[in-house]
Amino acid sequence: ALLTEIFSPSGYLAAGGGGDFVLGNTDVYQSLHDDLGDRRFAELDRPPAVAVNFIVEDLVCGGGPLRVVLGTQKDKQEPPALYDEPQGSKDSVLCPLPAGSVIVRDLRAWHGGTPNALPFTRYMPNAEFVDAEWKKKVCRSGTYLDPCARRLPKSAYSRLSERGQALASGIVEPTGELELTSPEESTRWLAPEFPQLNR
């Protein structure tokens, strides 16, 4: 219901997903940035795209929470460099949050990672959605957030609800090319030492 309200009246489509992580024992901030890379989007009345971040474990304020600077989705300026960033921006963290929470975030808003004092990695996967009008501009362009790029495995698509399938129909890869054939393949991209870094 919230996404329907955000993208009213044109509707919305799934465009992919991703997420971020903060390694344990990290003592630095990530520089503020927006996810669209073009401040001209700030001129739009409605967000062209949003991310829904999933909190998969209880998130405490010392565990690398996301920070989002309120109101910056309409700011036409680039975010400040980390060394020029006011303390108020560094303190605009979204925490504590219990596992199962979601963060619905306008991709134009300035945001960044924060230090993680815990000894383990904080993971935050997301799903990304675009205004249906976006499809007319970028379908099959190969650009970020292309709602027609084939990036969702057919097996994952088949597990979605009817509504989910309708939203993701443009990004499902129908040939099976993206399917995993073994559990080992799901971690094939990891550097061998990465799983041992934390946890």
Quick recap:
The chain has 199 residues and is of the alpha+beta class. The chain is built from six helices and eight strands; from the N terminus they run αβββαβββαβααβα.
Describe the 3D structure.
This protein is an alpha+beta fold and 199 residues long. It has six helices and eight strands; from the N terminus they run αβββαβββαβααβα. A four-stranded antiparallel β-sheet has the order 1-6-2-4. It is globular, with a radius of gyration of 18 Å. The termini are far apart. The model has no long low-confidence stretch (mean pLDDT 91).
What is the topology?
Elements: H1 2-6, E1 12-22, E2 49-54, E3 67-68, H2 87-90, E4 102-106, E5 111-112, E6 122-131, H3 132-138, E7 152-153, H4 154-158, H5 162-168, E8 172-173, H6 194-197
Parallel strand pairs: 7-8
Antiparallel strand pairs: 1-6, 2-4, 2-6, 3-5
